[in-house]
Amino acid sequence: MLSVEEAFRTIVGQFRPLETERVPLREACDRVLAEDVRSPEPVPPFDNSAMDGYAVRFEDTLGASAGAPVALFVVGEVPAGRAPEARVEPGTAVRVMTGAPMPEGADAVVMREDTREHPDRVEVLLPAEHGEHVRRVGDDIPADSRVLEAGTVLNPSALGVLASIGVGRIAVVRRPRVALLATGDELVELGQPLGPGQIRNSSAHALEAAIAAMGAVPVPLGIARDDRAELTAKLHEGARADLLVTTGGVSVGDYDLVREVLTSLGQLDLWRVNMQPGKPLAFGHIDGCPVLGLPGNPVSSMVAFELFVRPAIRRLQGHTALAHARVPVVLDAPMTKKNARRQYLRAVVRLVDGAFHADLTGPQGSHMLTSMARANALVILPEGTRSYAAGDRVEGHLLGEGALFENRDSDAV
Ligand code: AMP
Ligand code: MG
Asked: Per-residue pLDDT for 410 more than 70?
């Protein structure tokens, strides 16, 4: 049996970032920047006031206090978005709003709150320091500096940074197209009645949502019957995508043709991975397209998605953060592990007094997708059999995009 780590390395090691495309900012969120970006202009573009108040010469305010204020003549006013008309000469001040360009001659701003205001003059109650409450040109981004590096994940703030320097289109790694094929004679699509022995195709819908939620493009191919011609046609169709994911038909007990057809069409290995759920897994290529064959049980396919498919897709997307955060969790109930494979148990993890505590979401059958729907983590019970007491510490694998980090030490999953 393959270890989870070996399967991860073999699979993820085969994926490289896709080509790049130039898109408007609103299509770039959470995508990976494919070029260094230099700023054509400084941000802020001019010296401006950080406060509503008075632009002054700081020397004029030396020694000011509430008891002995310094009085200055107000010679003008600058709202944000206007060019200053008046200059600040010794003994004068200009009223400025937040974001207003600094008038010439001024080198500090006194907050309104530190003044007493009169129609033509202002009393300053505190001494100003040189440069106080002034935002200097280029103090955030100097002109002609490198603002963002290739490989950066464009979060909303990064998109704001690009807008702040006037960049409206940007080169990013294109979105992977991920084809999805459910296999099995027993499967029925939504809207169809259930016949004897039939179940609904649930796995494909869960996987389709997971693929879309991570910013890839799902290409749903529906259900392939256990029929050689139909399977072959659908697999070739799916192989036009950047990745083909199938569900079902890869376990040893299968009567159906999926394994036979999968392996006859390309170079495909059928693996047994030392984990539960999700032991059977197929990986290889059809028509040059990488193919990942997941087990059919809905929980097994979702766990295999988290461990192997999500990191593979993230590689295609150009991400380097592939590893789920693994955090120490305290078990709140005893449990006995009878199966020697590494177990991934669906759990809700909560912070209690600074420590993560894990509560299983209920019965853990691989067909029980409700237990996965409620989970925010997978509790990992290592290989081997043993009993765990309440209060024992193990590791929890946090689910979701937000819990992905770079792992520079190893390929731990
Ligand atoms: P298999 O991996 O094909 O041996 O399927 C394992 C179990 O998962 C069987 O009980 C199947 O009926 C079930 N199953 C297979 N595909 C799906 C699917 N797309 N949705 C829900 N259950 C499935
Ligand atoms: Mg099957």
From this structure: no
